[in-house]
């Protein structure tokens, strides 16, 4: 359906010589119909979120093993230490559902992979990666002189190339 301004409708009606009282009533009715309802447009702002990487370290030896983890999001003002509790709550809610009673989840990985987002959304947790991703451990230091890079100006011809 084509959108048209109320003022354009008023001009068209004026061209067809409609009575001014009737024209005013029609324009007022159109203005009321085009006004959005006050309750419909007001939405609460989305909550601010922070990223938390949840690592899978069953042996408790963080730097010596290949690790995998999941990326989840929680509200910005929430403690990152509440992340596991939020996952547990979502997993318990999933296991209480009809689908969860048929195929209950037993581990955090199964919960993040199998449970739908609605169970975690109630716990204010947003799963960004359902499958675990690799985690790389770093000492957070840039090397100084190990990688010397020589700049080569490719615009200038090498004299050795001219001889051949």
Describe this structure in words.
It is a single chain. This protein is of the alpha+beta class and 164 residues long. The chain has two domains: 7-36, no CATH class; 49-135, no CATH class. The chain has eight helices and four strands, in the order αααββααααββα. The protein has helices at residues 6-15, 20-34, 38-41, 83-96, 98-102, 108-114, 117-122, 159-163; strands at 49-56, 67-75, 126-127, 133-135. Helix 1 runs antiparallel to helix 2. The longest helix has 15 residues, at 20-34. The chain is elongated and about 85 Å long. The model has no long low-confidence stretch (mean pLDDT 78).
Give a summary of the structure in a few sentences.
This protein has 164 residues and is of the alpha+beta class. The chain contains 8 helices and 4 strands.
Give the termini distance in whole angstroms: 74 Å
**What is the beta-strand fraction?**
5-15%
Radius of gyration: 32 Å
* Secondary structure tally, helices: 8
Order of helices and strands: HHHEEHHHHEEH
